[in-house]
Amino acid sequence: MGGLRNVYHRFAKPYSLILSFIALIKQFMKKKIIAVLGILALCLAGLLTFKTVQKYKKKQAVAIRKQTLPAFQFYNQDLQKFNASQLKVGIPVCIFYYNAECDHCQYEATEIKKHIEAFKNIQVIMVSTNAPTETIQFVNQYQLKGYEFITWLYDKDYSFYKWFGQSVTPSVYIYNKQHKLVKEYTGEVKIAAVLQNLKYDE
Fold first, then answer.
1. Distance between CA atoms of 196 and 119, rounded to whole angstroms?
2. pTM score, two decimals?
3. Measured distance CA(162)–CA(58) in Å, rounded
């Protein structure tokens, strides 16, 4: 028994030191992991803050830019580029952002047809991501074909948001004779309200 006790005492101390050393390593690694996680959390928070600020700045820049009719560029139904410089100076502009499958857009199209004579001295710009074939069907269905004051544009590159910000369909942007923004509507709107705002500077 004395021999076994001596063997135990011989190895017990080194074993205890090894366990203590392992415990110290674990404690050190735990602190290191917590520190790394803390740094990652700070970096992530900083990145999110930066992106939020950048997004806000872009939104503000668009809001300021569209106060005057933006220098937009879309495509006509023949896939030829059409830009804002092709619009007539001194005539109000009414931009409808629509989608042919949108119920509210279909309602507005019906109302535009009902009040079509009131738009004859307005530059009506109909912008959509619908392909020309879909637009032709929409134009025919709501009897809006053949009106020279209505221009049908194709947002082929999905770039509408660059000029007017994130927009739902339907959205309406009304510019007076000086091509200054008078009013914008998000969602369905009564055409009577649109026409009233078009008379803003008369």
1. 11
2. 0.71
3. 9
Cis peptide before 14, with omega less than 30 degrees from 0?
no
Q: Which of 121, 130, 127 is nearest to 72 (CA)?
A: 127
d(CA 15, CA 187): 75
CB 173 within 8 A of CB 164: yes
| pLDDT tens digits along 144-157 | 999 999 999 999 99
CA atoms of 92 and 177, how far apart (whole Å): 4
Q: Which residue carries 């279909």 as its tokens? A: 106
Please state whether beta strands 171-175 and 181-186 pair in parallel, antiparallel, or not at all (unpaired): antiparallel
Identify the pLDDT of residue 8.
47
Is residue 127 within 8 Å of residue 95, measured between CB atoms?
A: yes
Instruction: Determine whether domain 73-198 maps to CATH 3.40.30.10.
Output: yes
The pLDDT score that the predictor gives to residue 36 is: 67
Please give the full DSSP string across 36-77, using - where no structure is assigned. Answer: HHHHHHHHHHHHHHHHHHHHHHHHHHHHHHTTB----EEE-T
To which residue do tokens 């005492």 refer? 9
- pLDDT tier for residue 16 given thresholds of 50, 70 and 90: confident
Instruction: Quote the tokens at residue 133.
Output: 């074939």
How far, in whole angstroms, is CA 164 from its chain's centroid? 9
